[in-house]
Amino acid sequence: MPSLYLASGSPRRRELLTQIGVPFTVLSAQIDETPFDAETPAAYVERL
Q1: How far is Cα 8 from Cα 17, in angstroms, rounded to an integer?
Q2: Range of the domain at 35
Q3: Which of the two residues, 15 and 33, has the higher pLDDT score?
């Protein structure tokens, strides 16, 4: 089975993949996802 890249720091997702035996590598980004004041949802998504 090919290895999967998990682009998330979620402990639950790691746990689920481990439980079903899927090999993976965690590549979570260290990005502050806090929205800016008065930022529109569209601008927020585009920035991230």
Answers
A1: 12
A2: 4-47
A3: 15
Please classify residue 17 by burial: count the beta carbons closer than 10 Å to its beta carbon, then call 0-12 exposed, 13-18 middle and 19+ buried.
Answer: middle
Mind giving me the DSSP string for 5-39? Answer: EE----HHHHHHHHHTT--EEE-------PPPTT-
CA distance 10 to 16: 10
pLDDT in tens, 10-28: 899 999 999 999 999 999 8
Total count of domains within the chain: 1
CB atoms within 10 A of CB 15: 9
Amino acid at 48: L
**What is the value of pTM for the model shown?**
0.60
Q: How long a stretch of residues is the chain?
A: 48
